[in-house]
Amino acid sequence: MKIMIVGTGYVGLVTGTCLADLGNFVTCVDSDLKKLTVLKGCKSPFYESGLEERLKRNSEAGRLSFTSSIRDDFKETDVFFNIVGTPSLESGELDLSYMYSVVREFFDVYKNTGCNDFKVFVMKSTVPVGTGQEIVAIRESYGISDDQVAIVSNPEFLRQGTAVDDFFHPDRIVIGSSCDKALDIVQKLYDPLSRRDTPIVRTSLQTAELSKYASNTYLATKISFINEMANLCELTGADVSDVSKIMGLDARIGRYFLNFGPGYGGSCLPKDTKSLVHLSEILGYDLKIASAVEAVNDHQKKRVMSYILDYFNHDLTGKIFAVLGLSFKPNTDDVRESSSLVIIESLLNQGANVKAFDPEVNFLSEFDGYDGFSIVGDSYEVAESADAIILVTEWNMFRELDLKRLKSVMNQPVFFDLRNVYSPKKLEDAGFDAYVVGRKCLKVAIDKG
Ligand code: UDX
Q1: 102 lines ligand 1 (CB under 6 A)
Q2: Long-range contacts: 233-236, Cβ < 8 Å, 24+?
Q3: Nearest C-alpha to atom 17 of ligand 1 is from which residue?
């Protein structure tokens, strides 16, 4: 099939490249000319495992191309995917301006080129429930019928870092529309995956849209729930790693997304939870659980600071902190909504110096104005002369650190492990004063939230 992907962010580029890998002819459109040059050179503008080799293979085979205008290849294209960014505003509301400008451009071109072929317009960007129907209303305002252009919602469930693998092995594929012909066409695109027993759920536009928010908010709920249990463990002396394991062994609960830590980050869970709360407010419904999930997460990101302040008698002036991990999770260079940013900002504002190391992040504009911040080249360099280590992102390379060597280069041997990478015993055996989230507190006041 001939496909057009509008927007080459991580979801757009992964979707386009993987659809080309399934044998389709894919044109990817982006307005960023610099990015297009990179893509035309068969390079990925961001790090995503398994992407670049597929990008190269499919470009060389002539199945994947890049352009700046949806007019190119418009006529021959059967299915258009709108995957442009829908960033979050402070209120939780989404900025849908890019998304709507693509919608209008699409209908303008359809109308102005006198096109009459059946086209399918798929919304893959995460958008509030009701957006699909708004697009149907816009289509009608152009005098274009359902027999000419059908609107479909096909939410993505790709995780950064494993997005390519997630594309080929999804838990489910959701396609929503009121047009059966369009549902058949989009389903056909995913047929090679359904042969591997992937369930395909056909539903309405609104249901497809809401299912994405419901899934991500539920995942965020699991994380905030286990984080609260971790906090309770710190007050009771229970060990949250066992609590989490015991809960996860119940098939009704399931073991995924019960890893406790410094709160969830990234471009999706925080944004989707906020957006669902915002939509509910507009509808006059008080979405209590999701609001609490958000509040717990905001607190969780800052929580370690109360321990740090207590440990250092509320004076961090001139102290040096070594931060391990900047990205919001391992295997990505994305720092959006990362807990490390919240912690670093807080440390710097208290007059501390911060050195950080991350295997994929070597530049952060966020702390440009701060003299006390630097990014260094490895885990031991970051620990040099430090008064404490804070492990924020559980990259595999942080799991096998030579703890004795780390300790030997530090000014004070204090270790805050926010991801339960090390057991308290292992850290203490290596000579550290250790805090391990939900498992072991330092001998200071406990944060009661
Ligand atoms: C998420 C959803 O998983 C995906 O389906 C959706 O399409 C996009 O949003 P992503 O943001 O890439 O994917 O990351 P994910 O692996 O879900 O992790 C999100 C955050 O939650 C990370 O900060 C991670 O550290 C945190 N997390 C995850 C936990 O703290 N504990 C867990 O048990 C799982």
Answers
A1: no
A2: 233/438, 233/439, 234/438, 234/441, 234/446, 234/447, 235/446, 235/448
A3: 159
Residue identifier of the C-alpha nearest atom 26 of ligand 1: 264
Q: What is the pLDDT of residues 150-184, one digit of tens each?
A: 999 999 999 998 999 999 999 999 999 999 999 99
Look at residue 445 in the predicted model and tell me its pLDDT. 57
Provide the residue count of the chain: 449
Tokens of 327: 């990205």
Verify whether ligand 1 is closer than 6 Å to residue 230 (CB atom): no
* DSSP 3-state of 403: helix
Q: What are the pLDDT digits (tens) for 237-248?
A: 999 999 999 999
Q: How far is CA 316 from CA 28, 320, 368, 385, 409, in A?
A: 49, 8, 20, 15, 20
What are the beta bridge partners of residue 390? 323, 416
Q: How confident is the model at residue 90 (pLDDT cuts 50, 70, 90)?
A: confident
Look-up of token digits 């092995």: 169
